[in-house]
Sequence to fold (354 residues):
Amino acid sequence: MKGMTIIVKTISSWVKVLIFLFGIYIVLFGHLPPGGGFAGGVILASSYVLLMLAFGRELAQKNLPVTLGSKLDCAGAFAFALIAVLGFAVSGVFFANFLHQNGWARAHLQSGPFQLISSGTIPLSNIAIGLKVGASLFLVIFCLSICRRGKGFSLDVLDTPNKKGPETSEK
Amino acid sequence: MEMFYILLLFILIAAVVAVETTDLLSAVICIGAIGFGASLMFLFLRAPDIAITQIVVEVLGLIILIRATISRDLTFISGDKEFFGTVVSVVIIFVIFLAGLRVFDTLPDFGTPIYAEVPDAASQTYIKEGLNQTGAANIVSSVILDYRAYDTLGEATVLFTSIIGATVILRERAKKLLEDSDE
Fold:
């Protein structure tokens, strides 16, 4: 089964870009209007899920391989923890908003409230969480869609889509 | 506010249908109706952040559930419910309801925030000082990523662990290892 009908494919090839852009907007502007890292990350993941449902699993895997997805996932989690530890290193409190509380950083790196670059580490945390949630939810749906009943899957097979499973395992 | 109670009734009916129906696909669709109704309720309660998150997560969850239901051969549930289990669960729910009745008396009215009754509540500080102390115009964002960031770290850890669990359990090699150890 290679995806759905041509109507679904045409429409989703237009819509997936808009969904992805909307996810980026929700993540980046999470500290101004309603939204935030979690909701934006789920929207980012859902654009890839739309790709997977409309065009089949192979195209989605070519766009975002499982290894790259897991790397993005780990990078997001690491960045969020790094922001927390940096707050500890700079201000002495875990998760301190060091970019906003420090007077120098506030004067030189930030503009006033209601601006895109404001509120210190909150947009950075939003980006980290959005990356993490998007990559990990995509991975969950990918794993669940690949797993048929009684059969598991091997991540090594997924990374080399040209070869069949048994051949790679023999090599 | 009448619309809110109509939604509440709709969610209750959908929940009862989801439990009582024998068709798996209908049950999944009823669960989706509950989720979308809940996101509308959050909008009526003036919580757009929660509403966005709820509706987006609901869409992804529905996709997973419907795919899992369609790929099964057997979509009808057969057999009767156990009488003993039903009685025990009804009794437990009744006891919890009796205990909860006393708690409901102390709660503020439905839809009213708690700072309306308690003047020096913590949420009052967040609303007054949030923009000054964190610089974020969205108070919810300033709470979950600054004041209560430990909570968000825990949530991220839970998600991370669940991904590791899913990829490890669904792998073929792990299943092979399990089969070998059984033999």
